[in-house]
Amino acid sequence: MRALILLGLVGFAAQLVDGSLGMAYGVTSTTLLLAIGTNAAAASATVHLAEIGTTLVSGLSHWRFGNVDWKVVAKIGVPGAVGAFAGATFLSSLSTEVAAPVMSIILLVLGAYILVRFTALGLPRGNLGKPLRKRFLAPLGLLAGFVDSTGGGGWGPVGTPAILASGRLAPRKVIGSIDASEFLVAIAASIGFFVGLGSENINFSWVVVLLIGGVIAAPIAAWLVRHIPPRILGSSVGGIIVLTNARTLLRSDWIDASSSVQTVAYVIIAAIWAAAIAYSVREYRRDKANESVEGVESELRRKTGDTEEETASA
């Protein structure tokens, strides 16, 4: 019972992060399932089954708050579904001994990407309004869908930064569109896992608990996306993912590191993580202060202009 409650809280927290940041539900949930010894393919299958419900609710919630561009959803979602199905059948064919370290490596890379991306760069906001073309979105969707299935997560970490980097869509619409299109990816991946695994290796009680936690969090996250600082959240989540998957790799048969080596590695990762969060907080506060100064200067210029016009007319 305690494990189910924990999974429910993880589903809630993971969806809260995913709906606010446009990534990390699958990565966070799969990381936990791997940490407690779940088969790699079964972990990814469990998460994707839960995501059918969470992405549906999240997509509808983002749509209600005006965060979805349906043209982007169509252009990236269908290729994403194809890639997800291919990735699911590929992962299902790997042995457990090979699949777990492979998935941990993918998750570790994605976690590091999230950590570095949001700590160093935050969210790019230039070039808004320019169209996102199918020749860019289709290959991106295919790759992101494949990584999502084989890594137990990756649709958001691959798709969201790529679209944000283009600067052609408002950040909240990037997040909403990625969350909405993930519904197609989750369905395709789940079908792929059923084809490759069957249903006997999937714990459906875990699916339900993850789903309930995610569904509760989805509308809250869709509202928070307008207010939460993504830079700080990205640094925090990225660090958790890196630390957890580094632990899995260090304890795997591939590395089998001694306890002293593991301790040193954890201390180094924790120090980098703490520094990243501190830097993100500092940069966020500096950006807010600059915005306030710019706002005051703009207001002063406006008032000065109004005064000059009144003087001229007099």
From TrEMBL:
Origin, by domain of life?
Answer: Bacteria
The family database entries (Pfam families) matched by this protein are listed as: TauE
Q: Where in the cell is it found?
A: Cell membrane; Membrane
Q: What are the annotated GO cellular component locations?
A: plasma membrane
Question: Which stretches does the entry tag as region Disordered?
Answer: 289-314
Cite the InterPro entries for this sequence: TM_pro_TauE-like, TSUP/Inactive_protease-like
Keywords, A to Z, come to: Cell membrane, Membrane, Transmembrane, Transmembrane helix
Question: What broad class describes the main subcellular location of this protein?
Answer: membrane
Q: What name appears for this protein in its UniProt entry?
A: Probable membrane transporter protein
Entry keyword Cell membrane: yes
The entry's family comment says: Belongs to the 4-toluene sulfonate uptake permease (TSUP) (TC 2.A.102) family.
Mode of membrane association: Multi-pass membrane protein
Q: Which PANTHER family match?
A: MEMBRANE TRANSPORTER PROTEIN MJ0441-RELATED, MEMBRANE TRANSPORTER PROTEIN YTNM-RELATED
Ranges that cross the membrane: 98-116, 180-198, 204-225, 262-281
